Amino acid sequence: MIAHELEDVREGMGRDGAESRVLRDRPAGCLLQREIRARQAICDAARAGRAEIQLYDLAPIPLYNQDFEGDMRPPIVKKLLADIADADGLVLCAPEFNHSIPGVLKNAIDWASRPAFQSVLAYKPVAIMATSRGPLGGARCLEHMRTALDSCLSRIALAREVIITACETKITDGRLVDETSLGFACGAVEALLKEIALWQAAEVKPQ
């Protein structure tokens, strides 16, 4: 059992020529280690030397409490928000639990969504993916992620939906070996890197 994690990806073309960074998210819960490693393989393949990935453990993040916002946020939450702000984008990859988003991911989004419409998630480029051990799951998780991120004014990268169903049959030795699923996942990350480049080229963010 491995806890929910967030990944940080930096594209090779930043404003100053340095590597740019994107946060990638992966939920915890009852995920097997091989499933976690498989999602790492997705980004390894997609970045192709143009991105730096850092995993971020969301398990220690306390439950969201609106009474503890601003300066009253717990230190670990302040660090989470600072790391998201420092990143150039996010990749969120989550399994579908009970037809929705895993609680650990929703909890992190709730913390990061404040203050409303001015949070670290506002205008942040994001790629989203979902997995399921069943043959039909994942779509509702993906849609609920989209709804939550839309409410935060995040910029979801335009790409084909990435839903890796029956994931246990598509992973060998901890690597995602299904070419169709891998192609969709790589396409989403590639779209994210392009979104980051466009956003950086614009230089001025909406106020």
β-sheet strand percentage? 15-25%
Low-confidence stretches: 1-18, 26-32
Oligomerization category of the chains in this entry: single chain
Radius of gyration: 16 Å
Number of domains as seen in the coordinates: 1
What string gives the helices and strands in order? Answer: EEHEHEHEHEEEEH
Provide structural commentary:
The protein contains 5 helices and 9 strands. It has 207 residues and is an alpha/beta fold. The protein has one domain (5-202): Flavodoxin domain (Rossmann fold, 3-Layer(aba) Sandwich), CATH 3.40.50. Helix 1 crosses helix 5. The radius of gyration is 16 Å and the shape is globular. The model is unreliable at 1-18 and 26-32 (pLDDT under 50). It starts with a strand and ends in a 5-residue tail after the last helix. Helices cover 36% and strands 17% of the residues. The protein has helices spanning 33-47, 75-86, 103-112, 139-151, 179-202, and strands spanning 5-9, 22-26, 53-57, 90-95, 125-131, 155-156, 163-164, 171-172, 175-176. Strands 1, 2, 3, 4, 5, 6 and 7 form a 7-stranded mixed β-sheet that branches. Strand 4 (90-95), helix 3 and strand 5 form a beta-alpha-beta unit.
